[in-house]
Automatic annotation (TrEMBL):
<protein>
    <submittedName>
        <fullName>Uncharacterized protein</fullName>
    </submittedName>
</protein>
Amino acid sequence: MHTHILQFRTRYAAALGALLALALLGVMVFLLTSLVTPSRAAVLTEDARHELVFYELSPLGEAGGYMMPASCPSGYVESGPHAWRQTGSQVIGWGRRQTTRITETYSAPCTAAAAPTLSLTANPSSISYNSASTLSWSSANATSCTASNGWSGGKALSGSQSTGALTSSRSYTLSCTGAGGTVTRSVTVYVAAAPAMTSINATCSADGNTVSANWSATNATSYNLRVDNQSNPWKGACNVAQYPGDVCADGYGSTSWSAGGAQGNTYNVWVHACVAGYCSSPISRQVTCTPPTPTLTFTGNPTSVTYNTASTLSWSSTNVTSCTASGAWSGSKAVSGSQSTGALTTTPNTYTLTCTGPGGSITRNVTITIPAPTLSFTGNPTSISNGGASTLTWSTANATSCTASGAWSGSKAVSGSQSTGAITTTPNTYTLTCTGPGGSITRDVTVTIPAPTLTIKANPTVVGYGGASTVTWSTTNATACTASGDWTGNKAVSGSQTMSNIIKTPNTYSMTCTGPGGSVTRIANATTGGTSGTSVTIPAPTATLQVRVNGGAWTTAAQTIEPTDTINLQWGSTNASTCNAGGFTAGTTSGIATAVDEPAPGTTKTYTVQCPGATGTSPANASVDVTTRSRLPTLTSSSLIVTSGSTATLTYDLNSNPSCTFDTTDTTLNNVVVSTNGAKSTGQITKQTVYTLECPGGNATIIINIEGDIREQ
């Protein structure tokens, strides 16, 4: 707790000094509390003192001075009673000018002031366009309140106030102040978007007696609806008294409207979207209620009648008041009904019906016909042999007469049959035209003598060189045949002939046969003959060449042999006149060669055979490769240069050769046969000597020279 102190000082005292000052203390207290004024600003010390100074007190009782009112510092309030106490006195001056200064302190305790509180609300906080909200507030420990932002001015410490109609969102701020400080609160009132029309549609019912409208909008709670019947349009503002049947509705609560309307009237419809007394710009539609279009169903049953029979006409309509017949009938007709045409003898007969109503007229037609006659006309058979006949048969419907033309003539019954008689030419077309009330019809029948047929084949169609084939043929409707190609001359209309010693290829045997119906050409083949192709052929020659090693199996695969192996060759052929060999001797179409020149070690040899065939074919070729492995021995000497009369040691490796023979001028080793790897000593060497080791797989040679007599090796 803090204290605030009232301190005063005397400036002048009476001659009586301190006693008089004490006697006047009570008066001073009174004066101090009611007459003094502040002399200077208060000074806040550590103990929260405030000084009150009284300056003048004369000996005659004249008083004057200044006092600073006692108060707690900012943020504090008095929390107890005040009390006086003397804190000092002092005599100042001398003689008659002597004054006694007395100091007293008037103090009371201070405590920290409570901070103000404030509540500010808006109800409702969200409103529709052009509506208001109520602001409410209450405070505690405050002495004043001030509004800002969306409102202004001083406000009571508690209360409420309308925002007024708002068209946009707004924030409101209130600040309240007390001894304990200032508190500020804000609240926002949110305003919905303005109402707006989004769509409108206006229609009339199908019968034209009802006009309707429907619409949609956003943020609207009601609508201003205007409907103007253009049969008596407005000449000023909307006024239902002046214009009965129109609509002038404000605050209309639905999004649809309908009313009875007279056919042929046009309506203008306007709608505004509204909320809280505010309405948007309107949107509008115009609709005309036209009378319904008439409909008419008009049929005839049947629509196709036989001569001198009738059909029944039937009709029905909607939205009409009268009907009138025209065309094949006439007169006024009921809006629905049926009527017979009566017996019909002409065709076509078109009946027209026109029906009229408030919405206009409609016309429909029905055509009744007597059908054209039908005719079935056939010939049996339509293909005959030379001199044969065919029977013509016909029948009609809706015909009264028939007339023949083409290959026959004259009037004919509407149905019947007749023979053509013997036919020796081709083609023969018979025409029949039949007529009736519904028109005419014509049909044709063609009777022909067919072209001849020819079947020719060769057996076999593939023969060996110098072989034979038999050609066989047969015909129908043919009187003569002629051969061509690889045979010639006139031939019977059927028969066979053998073709011998065929040595060329291909061989084409063609035949053309003629009859009353024409001619036909065929080429012999393996079946019934055709218009193209090779009839008898000698196939191209074939050749084979096989090898066997040491009497083993025959094969066409390439072989690799040892130098000591023995090979044989076997060849064969088909459709060949002979065979020629390469690398061995042949001369016949097949055989086995036992004496074959084999390839040298380390080389490959290709053996071939070529076998020509019949004229017109290419020779056949075959080949096989044989490779002899290389089996070279090695031969080395302990020394290639020796003194005359000395010997050397020869070391050899046969490299799998079964045996090898030395060939040299050295009689010690000449013709010596070795069958395993090893070493041999030479005889005495007195001159340059050549040593050769001869093996089936190859040879090895070295030269030993005499020291001092080296020659080129």
